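Students often ask why we bother encoding 3D structure as a string. The short answer is that it lets us treat folding as translation between two languages. Here is a chain of 510 residues written in the first language.
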Amino acid sequence: MWDVVRPKSIQEKLDEAEQAQADKVAAQERKLWKGAEKALKKGVDNAALGAIVSMGTEPADFERKGQKLYLRTGASSANLHGLVLGGSGAGKTETLKRLAAIFASQTDYDIFFIDPKPTADLKFYFAGLMAEYGRTCKMYPDSPFNGFRGDARSVHNRLLTIPVLGTEGASAYYAELTEEYVWLGMNAGDGLPRTFDEVAQRLDYDYLLQYYANDPTSLQSIQRIKRQDANSVVMRFNNVARKFSTISGAGWAFEDVRAAYFGLPVLEASRDVDAIARFLIEDLKHYFATRKQRNRRTVVFFDEFSAFGSENVVNLMELVRSHGGIVILASQTTAALGDDRLQKRILGNVTIYLQRMNDPREVAALGGMQPVLDVSRHMDTKPNPNGIARYVDKSVIDPTKVAQLPLGGAYIINRGRVAHIKVQQAPVLDWNKIGTTHLDLALQWMSANNPNAPVLVRRASPAVPHAAAAARPLAPARTEPTPALAHGAPTKAATPSNAPNQADGADDFI
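And here it is in the second language, the structure alphabet:
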């Protein structure tokens, strides 16, 4: 009874006031979030990144129109690379798809997506998205990729990513011998090698001794490396040749296509896929620096990029900006970005799309600080009006709120400015309007090449081709045998739910 009628203490009153203020702020935030959801429901705008929940000064590389936020994609504005950060289930993949849709619909950029955890759903969605906006999309490993373009030195640099070479002590000495051995091997024949199998054949120790028998200098270099060490290099390339036979000089290269999806299943064969990822990144470097047309711009997406080696990707980022390239990364944690040095190199040079994650404090601090009035009071047994009021610096982005973000929520940190948005979902594709892409035929082809795959039955549909797709010339029919899939066919559950019926036309997927 006493607890009901007794006067409340000063501390209890302060606690109640603080809770009331917190409830008021939470209610206001819920209202703002519902406003953003309402703005997105008013009409689909594939150019928009999302709807604004709250924002101070407009971020430099973005533009506000009403309640929606747009990424500036002009040559001078879209030079800043991107990093999508968020834990599992926060909506990272949907944000990547939204960004891909923006670049596909609003620019003429070439678009490449590199995925260490490939799924049939994402693969076919990306291919369909590219086709929707007039880009034929090639997919690896479904179709052969040519990783052997370029001069002898550039191909040599790529091949050196296959064996793991040390940099200190005896390992460094062995690395130098291996570099020279691979150089001599790849040049021991007519022209440059066009497959990993051909590389392995040219690296055969006895073959090289015979090939360079009349070249004393080269012969001495070969004899400096022990036969067993040479055999280990050959074995490494033999392993890669068996598992990645679809990388050959007969396939397509970056400069041949407008869009491509690379599925590299890191979890299935991590050591070999790591090597191929390094090989692929080295090829991208050469493409940007030498083979890409100067007037073409390219954006490359790396989902869970740490699986490819953070430093390799960071080196690529620093190279491509001056060659008309943008790199957009995705990661679940800051720890996955690498050590402190790599984290600083990444975080200091990207636009950050910060989604829900457990410990966002370090990244949230990049949004800047703001002065907040902090009031403290002296407490004793009697009311005491004396206290201290002072301004303290607090993060503009509250880490606690980041950890509680709903699905699709994101804080954008761009050049020290912050915007809180609800990311718009990626476009829902109408496969009938895409016309020439033949998704169902691609799936049936995959089923035919995998006896354990479900039978996919084509259903009749009127299918009116998309105007842009219908205007494109049909791709020539294949005459070469179709390569076997490396990872099997998708299950029924993995098949895109919005990919039923296709019109007759050319197969742009494979």
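Translate back mentally: The longest helix spans residues 10-41. Keep this in mind for the problem set.
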